[in-house]
Hints:
Elements: H1 2-17, H2 29-32, E1 34-43, E2 46-49, E3 61-64, E4 69-73, E5 78-86, E6 90-97, H3 104-112, E7 116-122, E8 125-130, E9 134-140
Antiparallel strand pairs: 1-2, 1-3, 1-9, 3-4, 4-5, 5-6, 7-8, 8-9
Amino acid sequence: MKALIIPTASVLFFSLLTGCGKTTTISSNMELTGKWQLESIVQEDDTISKPATTKGVMDIGLNFKDKGELEGNTSTNILTGFYETAQQNTIQIGGGGTERAETSWGNLFVNALPSVNLYDLKTNRLVLYYENNNQLIFSRVQ
Length: 142
């Protein structure tokens, strides 16, 4: 009986380490800090790619700063706010910004951002998850 305890405990420990769910390489907010540019949005298995930038329209981006501060821009507006991460890849984002009319791309982003609740961070790629596994996919700028 004792011979089975150690192998069973090892298997149980390993399965806990490799459990289901989204995984991430992030260990603290420090790795999340920096500038990120929105590249695509996934909604109900449809991928919407970033449109070409036109005059008067900005690339959508977020700048995660130290101490939970957040800056960014939509297609036509400036954002300021906060972010907070926790265990199991949860994230809370809040704040506000200016109120000029958005492009359709900007509206997709603005409507999704308040619903973000999970994130996944890999080298130079950030995915923010919202509403039923929809995704905002960013690439690192700095």
